[in-house]
Specification:
329 residues; alpha/beta; TIM Barrel; 2 domains; eight-stranded parallel barrel; 14 helices; oxidoreductase; EC 1.3.1.-; tRNA-dihydrouridine synthase
Length: 329
């Protein structure tokens, strides 16, 4: 099965979720290398990227053309959203996603650059104005990511989705929680079915989809056209390809074990150091190294790997820890 976004074919319809501090260029490259229909950047503040804030520009860095890449924008000013959309399109983004789902307080709180993300679900007229501004600014496909609503009393995702479709949005992803749930409880995949019924464009299910079994359940309960995977890929960049193989018959990924797994982890580590510079890269890498060790159920040298400051030492410890272990996928 494949989905069409303009001239882009998303095959398979298994997508890497935007995750702040995680789906940077090095991680997206790892996931894309195993196979994904689309990989999505971290959320980028539209005004900050246009004012050349270094972190925002780093998050917008594409850097490779091996896979379809979507850049996710956040904001509440139509002018800055449109300008940022033009900028990332010029940088090579093949899809632009609008964030109306982030629940973080720093994003949704009023003041400064806040009151955006999922807070926009409380302001559907402004949400529509933002969508129209972005769609009108670019020629690449525009998509939208939301939650079910702000809270249980305002489950307006179907209405917002219908308005977004009318404004030219070509795909909608729904996280099966309200904003007020944050990440508590379980995602309600069945509730996504109301959005699917409201629009003709593809709908993607998101939330608590971490493996083949949960992906099957999410599709069955929501009727969605595809799935978006977030934390299930942490420490396992092959996870999307595994799910795609099971659901859509794409080639099975060759999941490395032992010394080959160490090579993969070190390659990711080195790319992070190169991308961020050694000082920042060492800090950014720790969470990824921790996930790799957790997925492989490796405890030997864990503390040393996560605290060492000399890259050569980290590489040697990784090789030592993985080489003797035939880890499971």
């Amino acid at each position: 099965m494949s989905l069409s976004l303009g001239a882009i074919s998303l095959h398979p319809p298994v997508i890497l979720a935007p995750m702040a501090g995680i789906t940077d260029l090095p991680f997206r490259r790892m996931v894309a290398g195993f196979g994904a229909g689309l990989v999505v950047s971290e959320m980028i503040a539209s005004e900050e990227v246009m004012k050349a804030q270094p972190l925002a520009r780093a998050r917008a860095e594409l850097g490779f053309a091996e896979a379809a890449t979507s850049v996710q924008l956040a904001g509440r000013d139509p002018y800055w959203m449109a300008e940022a959309a033009r900028y990332v399109e010029a940088q090579g983004a093949r899809v632009i996603d609008i964030n109306m789902g982030c629940p973080a307080k720093r994003v949704t709180a009023a003041g400064g650059n806040g009151a955006c993300g999922s807070a926009l679900m409380k302001e559907p007229e402004l949400a529509l104005a933002l969508i129209e501004a972005v769609v009108g600014a670019v020629s690449v496909p525009v998509t939208l990511k939301t939650r079910l609503g702000w809270d249980d009393q305002s489950l307006n995702a179907p209405k917002i989705a219908k308005s977004a479709e009318g404004a030219g949005v070509q795909m909608i992803t729904i996280h099966g929680r309200t904003r007020c749930q944050f990440y508590k409880g379980r995602a309600d995949w069945a509730a996504i079915a109301a959005v699917k019924a409201a629009v003709a464009v593809p709908v993607i299910a998101n939330g608590d989809i971490v493996d083949v079994a949960s992906a099957r359940q999410a599709l069955a309960q929501s009727g969605a056209d595809g799935v978006m995977i977030g934390r299930g890929a942490e420490g396992a960049p092959w996870r999307l390809a595994e799910i795609a193989h099971a659901l859509y018959g794409t080639p099975a990924p060759q999941v490395p074990e032992g010394a080959a797994r160490a090579d993969l982890v070190i390659a990711h580590y080195d790319h992070m150091l190169e991308f961020y510079g050694e000082s920042l890269g060492l800090r950014v890498a720790r969470k990824h190294l921790g996930w790799y060790l957790e997925v492989a159920d490796i405890t030997a040298n864990r503390d040393a790997i996560l605290t060492a400051t000399a890259p050569a030492t980290v590489r040697a410890l990784i090789r030592d820890s993985f080489a003797a272990v035939q880890v499971a996928a």
